[in-house]
Structures are given as structure tokens and as C-alpha cells.
Specification:
Largest sheet: 6 strands, mixed
Bound molecules: adenosine-5'-triphosphate
CATH architecture of the largest domain: 3-Layer(aba) Sandwich
Shape: elongated
Oligomer: single chain
Distance between the termini: 73 Å
CATH class of the largest domain: Alpha Beta
Radius of gyration: 35 Å
Number of domains: 3
Number of helices: 20
Strand order of the largest sheet: 6-7-8-3-9-10
Number of strands: 10
CATH topology of the largest domain: Rossmann fold
């Protein structure tokens, strides 16, 4: 555990951790000595000898113990605070370099737990828990040595109990550890489901589902409850065993002492002293057993933090210098956890042209754009942006080449203007408004009370889907990257929103290279090139007319889509 803590804190805190451990060990030894001093004090008292010098020595040891307690607590807290700072920094820095694809909803939920409770758990180890464990070793060891000094036979009796105590601790630990892992998993799953349940409230309510009707959450909570029950069933005997073994150890020393006293080998004052010592011998052990649960929790958190820190960031050489704004995929293959999604995809998007990506749902269109933005690395083949392998760009250089307009646009808590400014934080107010005007966001500002300063709320609650995408286009305008990856909105828009969006996109496409996951027939037909994906492979490629003339998959897709549109248009009549 100390090794794991040292590894997570890094070598710069090694000396501080060692100093803290040394202070704890000194405190533990002094604790043991202060216990041991009771024996000569009691012996002097009971045998009528002068007790003064022993009392003075006892007082000196007690004062030294108090000082050591203060010093080790200071050192412990210093390491705890360093752990807090270091873990926040290391986690923050590391997570910023991880592939965007790493941030799945459940990982984000667990990361939140880790940054909150997990880091506090780890901080409590050097600040509080470690001292209890070090004392549980150092104080009884000192007491044992002193017992040998007072009477070697009683010392030997105490020493013989040590292996049994150790075995009882180990057995309980292994028993609890197995249940802990199951409990951790069940707890994390329960937390994920609660977050999911909260996020999905709009959809659940739309379908008239309440907490009772959300089976995934119910199942997770039931699993958590039964795991907890199992944990209690398996750990209670274990915890009882430690307490019982400690009591048995004490009884063994008591029996050995009494039989020695009865045989006349030990005098009564000494026996009383050593028995008092035996009681104190067991105290730190019981204290350590008490903090066992907290320690295991901290160890679990430490391991999860280590697992995040061990996740390799995307390697980037940072040597690339961007050329003309183009995109090229060369024999690209990709799989999500062994499930192939893209197979041998090759395509080129020439500078300042528009390529429409079409294909059935699940054919891999979104995945393809994500590989270009390097949310993940391709499993095979090469993805090139502006003439260079994406792996050769420093992350900020690659992102300087790309603007991404998602279908599901996230608006941050803040004003309309703030939300556009995310595209380029250092932009002037005029530039922000100009980008807004080009993306037709000015019309939204006119409508909203507060205009540009209107708060659009977390997740953009006050704007419609089409309006949110216009804000996203304004961000891309402001960023002014030469390549745009666009996932066109599929949601049915009212005619006013639709025409505003079409205008905004036309302005965005001007003089830029555009790869668009196209859903609107007008966008598809007007593209310089259409790439049709099916089952993760490119099945057809060409202009609209070329592909219609080919009379293959695209022609069938087009006929079906136009028919569907015709149906929708005539339906209300
Ligand atoms: N993060 C992910 N983890 C695992 N599988 C994924 C992930 N994202 C997508 N997939 C799977 O990969 C396949 C391709 O998905 P992708 O979103 O790229 O397709 P698409 O053509 O964009 O679909 P749509 O038009 O419905 O958005 C799908 O089967 C999908 O279930």
C-alpha cells in the first residue's frame, strides 16, 4: 500500500513520505515504551520500593510521546495535503491527454467519483490511517522487546501469539477483499445507473416511466443490496475472528503468567505489571482492525486512480506542419472493443471541396469523422489531415486545422455570446457578433430577452435543436479552421430554422474543406463528391449524377429517400 501510494504521488514526494513514516514509527515505539514503563512503576509501587524515579522516567516518556504524536500528525497532514494537490494535478493533466473516445458516460461518472471521494480516501491514508497501522506494528513490537527484558518467559509467550494474530489478520483481509471488489463494482454500476436515470429523465417521462419503471436502475440497486448482504455475511465472521484471536492471545499470556507465578518463577508485582502490559499490547492491534474498512476503501480508490494514470495518452510526435487543407484516409480499419466498424476505408477530400458522407444508420459515418479528429487512433491504415498523419500533429495543431459541428450540440451555462466565444476565446466582441450574424444567430439574439447576453442555460435548454446547431456553426466560423467536420441535424426543422441553417452552412462551407455526414437531400446533391458507406466499407463514390447513372446502391438510397420525403410532404393533406 505504501509502495502504491509512493508510486501515485511520484518521486518528488518520496522524501516527505519517508520522513512521515519515520515519525510514525518513532511515535509507535514511544507509545510502546510508555506502556512498558507501567511495569517498573507498578512493581515499585506494589513491592514498596521508591516509585519517584520511575514516575519521573514515565512522565518523560509520556511527554516525548506527546511531542512525537504532534510531529507525526503534522508530517502526516503535510503528506495528505501534498497527495490531494498532486492527485488533482496529475489526474487533471493526464486526463487532458487521453483520447476523447475514452470519455464514455460511465467513465466520466466514475472519474467524478474518483476526483471527489476517491482522492479524499487516499488523502486519509497518510493523514490518519497509516499512523494507526504503523503503531499497530511498532508499539506491540516495542512492548514485546520490553517483555523479554522484564521476563523472557512471558516475552516468549507473547511472541508465540504473534503468528496466530498475523494469520487471523491475513485471513480476514483476504475474505473481505473478495467481497470488497464485488461491492465496488456493484456500487459503481449503481452510481452509473443513477446518473443515467437522471440524464434520461426527459425521455423516461415522455414514455410515462417513473423510478419504479426503470428496470436497469432497479436491477443495479437490487444487485448492490444483495452484494452488501453477502459482504456482511462473509466479513462478520472474519471481523469476529480478529477480535477473538486478540482476546485469545491475551488469555494465553495470562495463563503463562499465572502458571509462572504459581510456580514461583515470577513475583506477583511483576506479574501484575506484565499483565497490564499485555492489555496494552493488544490495544493498537484492535485499533488497526477498526480502520481496516477505511484502509481497504482507500486502497480501492488508489488502484482506480492508478489505473486512470496508467491509461496511455495518445502519442503525438508534434513534428507535422499543416499544408493545404485536405483529408485523406488510406486503408483505414477500426474496431470498438474487437467489434470491427470500419474496414479498409480509403477516401480523399480535396482542399476547399464538399464531400457528403451517406449510408445507413450504423454504417460507421460518425466513427469515420471521429478518427479524423483523433478521438481514437485507427486500428490499421493512415488518416491524414492537411498532408500529415494525424499522429504527427501536436493535439492543439491538429485541432487548429479542424472545426467540428456535432448534431448534438452542448451549450454551456452562460450567455449566447459566451457560447460562441468558445470557438476562439480571445476574439473581440465584434468578431463574435460577426460570426453569430453569419450563422444567423443574430435572429435568435433578437428573439431572446437579453439578446446576446441571454443566458441559454446548461445543455442549451432554452434553444431548439436547429438553433443549437446554428450556435455551433457560429463557433466554427469564429474558430475559422480550414477544415470542417459536420454532422448535419437529422431532426425535422421548421422551414424558417431550416432555411437559416442552410444559409449558415453555405457560408461556413465557403473557402473551407467540408466533410459532412449529410442527411438533407439538397446537401447531398450539391456536394462535389459523395461517399457511400455500408457496413463500415466504402461501396460507392462519385458525384450525384455519376452515382445515379451507375444505378447501384446510392441510386436505390436516393430513390428511397426522395420517396420518403414525398410521403412526408403529402401526408398532412
Ligand atoms: N463508443 C462506441 N462504442 C462501441 N460501439 C460504438 C460506439 N460508437 C458507435 N458504435 C457502434 O459502431 C457502429 C457504427 O456507429 P456510427 O455511429 O459510426 O455509425 P453512423 O453511420 O454514424 O450511424 P448513425 O447514422 O445512426 O449515427 C454502430 O454499430 C455503433 O453501434
Amino acid at each position: 500500500m505504501i509502495g502504491e501510494l509512493g508510486a501515485v504521488l511520484g518521486p518528488e514526494h518520496g522524501a516527505r513520505l519517508r520522513r512521515s513514516l519515520l515519525a510514525m514509527a518513532v511515535y509507535g515505539v514511544l507509545q510502546g515504551l510508555s506502556f512498558a514503563m507501567l511495569v517498573p512503576v507498578l512493581r515499585a509501587l506494589l513491592s514498596g520500593e521508591s516509585v519517584g524515579p520511575w514516575l519521573a522516567a514515565f512522565a518523560a516518556v509520556v511527554v516525548a510521546t506527546a511531542v512525537a504524536s504532534y510531529v507525526q500528525a503534522q508530517y502526516g497532514y503535510a503528506v495528505g495535503l501534498a497527495a490531494l494537490r498532486t492527485l488533482y494535478h496529475r489526474l487533471g493533466d493526464h486526463v487532458a491527454g487521453l483520447p476523447v473516445g475514452w470519455f464514455s458516460a460511465d467513465r466520466v461518472g466514475r472519474l467524478g467519483q474518483l476526483v471527489g471521494k476517491g482522492v479524499m480516501d487516499v488523502m486519509s491514508v497518510p493523514a490518519h490511517l497509516l499512523q494507526v497501522v504503523v503503531s499497530a506494528v511498532a508499539a506491540p513490537a516495542t512492548v514485546l522487546v520490553c517483555m523479554f527484558v522484564f521476563d523472557w518467559r512471558l516475552g516468549l509467550a507473547a511472541l508465540l501469539t504473534a503468528p496466530f494474530l498475523w494469520l487471523a489478520f491475513r485471513w480476514t483481509q483476504s475474505l473481505v477483499q473478495r467481497s470488497d471488489t464485488a461491492m465496488d463494482d456493484a456500487g459503481a454500476e449503481g452510481a452509473d445507473r443513477v446518473v443515467e436515470f437522471a440524464r434520461q429523465q426527459p425521455s423516461l417521462r415522455a414514455f410515462g416511466r417513473t423510478a419504479d419503471g426503470y428496470d436497469l436502475l432497479d436491477d443495479a440497486l437490487v444487485r448492490q443490496r444483495s452484494t452488501l448482504r453477502r459482504l456482511l455475511r462473509t466479513t462478520l465472521p472474519g471481523l469476529g475472528t480478529v477480535a477473538l484471536t486478540v482476546q485469545l492471545a491475551f488469555t494465553a499470556i495470562l495463563i503463562a503468567g499465572c502458571s509462572l507465578a504459581l510456580g514461583g518463577a515470577v513475583d506477583v508485582p511483576e506479574l501484575v505489571g506484565v499483565l497490564v502490559l499485555a492489555v496494552r499490547f493488544t490495544e493498537p492491534l484492535l485499533a488497526a482492525a477498526d480502520v481496516g474498512g477505511e484502509l481497504r476503501m482507500a486502497r480501492g480508490s488508489l488502484r482506480r486512480i492508478k489505473a486512470v494514470l496508467d491509461t496511455p495518452p495518445l502519442p503525438a510526435t508534434g513534428t507535422a506542419r499543416a499544408g493545404e487543407p485536405s483529408i485523406e484516409l488510406d486503408g483505414v480499419g477500426f474496431a470498438y472493443a474487437e467489434r470491427p466498424v470500419l474496414r479498409d476505408v480509403s477516401l480523399t477530400v480535396a482542399p476547399r471541396t464538399v464531400t457528403a458522407l451517406v449510408g445507413p444508420s450504423g454504417s460507421g459515418k460518425t466513427t469515420l469523422t471521429r478518427l479524423i479528429a483523433r478521438f481514437w487512433d485507427a486500428g490499421s491504415g493512415v488518416v491524414r489531415v492537411s498532408g500529415n498523419d494525424v499522429r504527427d500533429y501536436a493535439p492543439e495543431e491538429l485541432m487548429a486545422q479542424l472545426s467540428i459541428v456535432f448534431q448534438d450540440v452542448y451549450l454551456f451555462e452562460g450567455t449566447l455570446e459566451d457560447n460562441i466565444r468558445i470557438g476562439r476565446p480571445e476574439a473581440t466582441d465584434e468578431e463574435v457578433r460577426e460570426a453569430g450574424r453569419l450563422a444567423r444567430v443574430d435572429e435568435i439574439a433578437e428573439r431572446l430577452p437579453g439578446g446576446w447576453q441571454a443566458r441559454v442555460g446548461e445543455a442549451g435548454a432554452t434553444l431548439s435543436g436547429g438553433e443549437r446547431q446554428r450556435v455551433s456553426i457560429a463557433r466554427a466560423m469564429l474558430k475559422d479552421a480550414p477544415i470542417v467536420l459536420l454532422d448535419e441535424a437529422t431532426a425535422a426543422l421548421d422551414p424558417e430554422n431550416e432555411s437559416a441553417l442552410i444559409d449558415a452552412l453555405a457560408t461556413l462551407a465557403r473557402d473551407r474543406t467540408l466533410l459532412v455526414i449529410a442527411h438533407r437531400l439538397t446537401t447531398i446533391a450539391a456536394a462535389d463528391q459523395i461517399v457511400m458507406l455500408e457496413g463500415g466499407a466504402v461501396v460507392e463514390r462519385g458525384t450525384h449524377q455519376e452515382l445515379l447513372d451507375l444505378d447501384g446502391r446510392y441510386a436505390a438510397f436516393w430513390t428511397e429517400r426522395t420517396r420518403a420525403r414525398g410521403w412526408r410532404l403529402t401526408q398532412p393533406a
